[in-house]
Fold these 2 entries.
Entry 1:
Amino acid sequence: METQPVVVGVDLGATSLRAGVFTPQGQLLTVDQAEIQAEQGSEKGVRRITQLIERLVAGVPGARLQGVGVGTTGPADALTGVLINPGTLPGWVNVPIAARLQERFGVPACLENDGDAAVLGEYWMGAGQGVSRLYMVTLGTGIGTAFVVEGRLYRGAGGFHPEGGHQVIDPDGPPCYCGARGCWESLASGTAIAKRAREALADSHNPLAQNSILRGEAERIDARDVVEAARAGDALAQQIIEQAADYFGMGLFNLLMLFFPDMILLSGGVMRNLDLFMPAIQGWVEKSQPYLPSGQVKIAPAKLGYYAGIYGAAYAILQRVNPPG
Amino acid sequence: METQPVVVGVDLGATSLRAGVFTPQGQLLTVDQAEIQAEQGSEKGVRRITQLIERLVAGVPGARLQGVGVGTTGPADALTGVLINPGTLPGWVNVPIAARLQERFGVPACLENDGDAAVLGEYWMGAGQGVSRLYMVTLGTGIGTAFVVEGRLYRGAGGFHPEGGHQVIDPDGPPCYCGARGCWESLASGTAIAKRAREALADSHNPLAQNSILRGEAERIDARDVVEAARAGDALAQQIIEQAADYFGMGLFNLLMLFFPDMILLSGGVMRNLDLFMPAIQGWVEKSQPYLPSGQVKIAPAKLGYYAGIYGAAYAILQRVNPPG
């Protein structure tokens, strides 16, 4: 039987684990997922990861494993391959995931922040293929940013992942857990949208709140509810989404001015409602045009969805096994 | 006579022209300057540049010229070496400076934005020697930014120079010529400081204005006057400087979060008054500490002053003659 060189990409999330087997050319041969059951500790968690990899690779005829990449909910130290202490995986303190996988499979392994993995995936096989300066923004409960230049991740001091979601864009904005007021995440994330809706509904002097279809469920409201209410014509919800979209556009404007990227990809839950956000985004992109030569920057939705992480993790280890020129 | 390989670095400003002859190791052998007399047109201007270079190189015994670099008031197209249409050199439209120098001297020549040249100079022989991720902010009449990663300039789409001075940090701020409201430059530059002082002095309801030593000269006030008045204990001037310093720190905070640089160098006129700005800057740097691994980022004054441009222009052409690894 002919052998097939493969790499594995793993996406380690707060609740679930996904892995895929790829050819070096980027073909996804097989993919599966499992529960991570993080609360049972990192020892069992790492075993679940290795078992998923074993099972998947065994299912590919002639597979010759060349490396394993992991994209993980952060923070992670990409230089040492150690998962530091994610708020989303309680008790997983300083877990040397890359070293453990390397030991187990006898091939190189690496660890990347999940945002970094996602942008690498989009660069490799998604919406940003071959783009010289590819920026990606993930708008979900928070706002994550990641940047690839000529196919390589931009890393900050110490190899760490910058936190563009915490740029300050309105000093009169609400306090954020990051310590500043009015950072991007505190104004435009899903969490910010839900919080603003709850506050508005609690304001008995707000006439829009009195007439809102969201009224009465303030406690349980999340960003999705606000989006749905906006689509249903609710004036309060529309006002909140418009404001969040304007702040979101403002943060993108700053990225345009600071990085002059060739493309910004948008991903994450709220981006499934890109139509609601796009008018405000477009307005801010237009403001940047006089500065952006030939106005060539593209703002586009990411393409790989939930698979971006495994694609990117696979590409990350491929880059280490066969460094680009 | 032994020959001495040299490169020339030129700094082309709005009113003056400076050039230096350097060894490839970074020793400045000789330097001089001249008026550019921009209003006489680019033909005569280019001749003045070549004459200055000829004169300087002729003064170095055994000099063998290897290349000429020019740092220029922007905008400039670094990829083609063409000066586009600077507001500060009226009528200098699409001047192919690099090609003209290459023709005249028969050696490679290149053109960089002056902010880019300055950060290259500081990286080569100034305060940022060998720093992996070196960001530089120049606070003068405007705010300029430039970034060097592993010794190479970060270039945006189309090879152009990003405009970090126009990141928006307060949407309630004043309108800027860039088209946005409350960008960094509109809130923290020397121009912003002077404008704010003039506006405050024109406000007959502002008690600080009524008692200010700046009163009566509102029309002619510039940032330097405000700084001097603040040092002399003037309450209005102190308030204006404190506010500008806070905005300046806020913009730096964003750079820290978005780039995680190893060092940010500060330069420009206002930075000669770093003591007035440092308390606010320090406060913002502290806010970024939880995110910056090991808190290792350094904020420091640039070192080469008016010579940064010629050092950087020389280094830029050296990099092209002998590309780094």
Note: Chain A touches chain B at residues 132-133, 145, 149, 154-158, 160-164, 166-172, 178-180, 250, 253-255, 257-262, 287, 290-294, 296-297 (CB under 8 Å).
Entry 2:
Amino acid sequence: MIDAGRQLERMRADAPLVHCITNYVAMNTAANVLLAAGASPAMVHAPEEAGAFAAAADALTVNIGTLSAPWREAMLLAAAGARGAGRPWVLDPVAVFLSDFRRDACARLIALGPTVIRGNASEILALAGGAGAGRGADAGDPVEAAAGAAVALARDSGAVLAVTGPVDFVTDGRRAARVANGHPLMPRVTALGCALTALLGAFVARAEDPFAAVAAGLACYGLAGERAGEAAAGPGDFAVRFLDALAALDGAAATAGARVTPC
Amino acid sequence: MIDAGRQLERMRADAPLVHCITNYVAMNTAANVLLAAGASPAMVHAPEEAGAFAAAADALTVNIGTLSAPWREAMLLAAAGARGAGRPWVLDPVAVFLSDFRRDACARLIALGPTVIRGNASEILALAGGAGAGRGADAGDPVEAAAGAAVALARDSGAVLAVTGPVDFVTDGRRAARVANGHPLMPRVTALGCALTALLGAFVARAEDPFAAVAAGLACYGLAGERAGEAAAGPGDFAVRFLDALAALDGAAATAGARVTPC
Amino acid sequence: MIDAGRQLERMRADAPLVHCITNYVAMNTAANVLLAAGASPAMVHAPEEAGAFAAAADALTVNIGTLSAPWREAMLLAAAGARGAGRPWVLDPVAVFLSDFRRDACARLIALGPTVIRGNASEILALAGGAGAGRGADAGDPVEAAAGAAVALARDSGAVLAVTGPVDFVTDGRRAARVANGHPLMPRVTALGCALTALLGAFVARAEDPFAAVAAGLACYGLAGERAGEAAAGPGDFAVRFLDALAALDGAAATAGARVTPC
């Protein structure tokens, strides 16, 4: 049984320092999501310091949204630094289906043993070698279509796989669950998926069970979306209310509202 | 007769994928503007993939706000990719009057045949070889002062020229119109001009008549500003309401509210 | 006696053009803070133009939050350009304690004579050669612990030192003051510290007394935070209200509300 509220309270008590290497669109949003949730963000991408900082932080998150060759170098150094120091790290393979440039970067990153891989269905299908129907940064495939690929990739890589969409699917290759929290306005605000990746870094920092931590993080994030959506006047207002709802979410509400179903 | 509402509905029905290479300040805002309006943004700037992605997207927008040599390479590759695939693309020559570095980049980009060039009066005057009174990223010249330069540049380059300010001026070299929608708080929020460039990419994607599409995009954007400004408590609140107003704007309201006057 | 309202009105009357080289997380926020306060931001970082632009703008601000080697080059060129033209410039040594890479960059920047250095206590202690307890981008030391280091660094460098926290400490090496304005939600919104650095650039532009200008800027910023915090529903809502409060703050309210105490 996954207790989202207990995981949230544990994360907040730790207030983990999360090293983020993410895309230009998402940096501000990811930092505000981490602060609202009670964690501490730091964006560091210079090759001169990324490896050592990843080893010193509580978790690393790597997002390839605006990938370039210099940033790829920092991502690889940081992932190696986290791995070497036994720190958990999360990979977000944004639009990996877009180019060999992205596919190659993700292959090299996955070889460095991410603790978690979070993507939409088209991204997970592409990581597993499938074709998929993604376009731009958007999924063209339903979450269910990527469940098998996620289980296989979890077994191969040792990572927890999170396939996100209207109902998320999470698996560590042995166990699996669906998380049904969320709101239709969430994909209407840019970078909320990328910021979720950053938040999952906070949840898996010092976590005993990354599978449970990821499922709890997905539920808490979706719950904040549900609260924000209750009275939002549109996507601009929603984005503001979302941060407020995430900051206001407490353990009891998270436990009561989480819709995590083993499957 | 330009029907802004019909153009808005056509754009929304297409939900075009807009490839944006824009500045660091504007990326998040531009993505949210495109999402609010009903289009799909993707920010891609690596030389390894920018050309192929521009050829695959529905439109490209290039904004030189935080120009650097590596990004200039991506801009040129993307513009060439869009041109080669017959995709429309929009140039935003931010602060081109600031340096030879910017003037040279814009000259090379204009040689790749943009579908639309959008700038403030000082930027358009500078593109046409004039001196102007721009400073920083701000126009120091009234829109009217750049009307002649815009017509000449439209004829030379084949692009639709949009000179934006309190009343916008748009021309394809044969036809011209003024668009009188907007609100005084718009220039008090950073990146709204840059995000307009991104939105014009969505309007000209698959458009039969880029001149009409640009005029309609300018009118819809200004109308969202008018709605947002009705009750805004300040520039922060305005930015939130602006996205909500853009998302809520429908075809009938756009047609009724657009103030587009041929001239 | 420092009159925060007179300084605010002087700055607004000048509407200074502030050249910002800041981190990716803070760019949008810094630009919006400058616009809300009545100044004009411009983000320019290419080595091809950074030096000349810094010499032409009214002030320069340099923030090393997402430092990299190419940006370091631009920062050094811009600082040299500002110095050569007699323009004031502000240094924000974000997380300087994190790596030799940052320590070295700050040493080279300080050799170019910043007008103001603003940081948290752990950053100022690190600049002065101390150990401190900073982690990520956060201070681990109280403001008071860095007061001696700030006075010494002000005397050595000729800069005004601003150590920010719940109560700020500002000194030019001869005079010192505490500024007690602010709100607990301010550190819960990312980039507000970095945006303060940008705003201090506006306050010291064309200022006769940089010490008084910095103290006034700190007070005005904290006052906007106090106003925003009165009714904020959370950190998202606070960020919106903060910009509105900064835009609405007038000279009389700033003079009446500033809590600047010589010490």
Note: The interface with chain C takes residues 17, 19, 24, 27-28, 31-32, 35-36, 40-46, 48-49, 52-53, 57, 70, 239-245, 247-248 of chain A (CB under 8 Å).
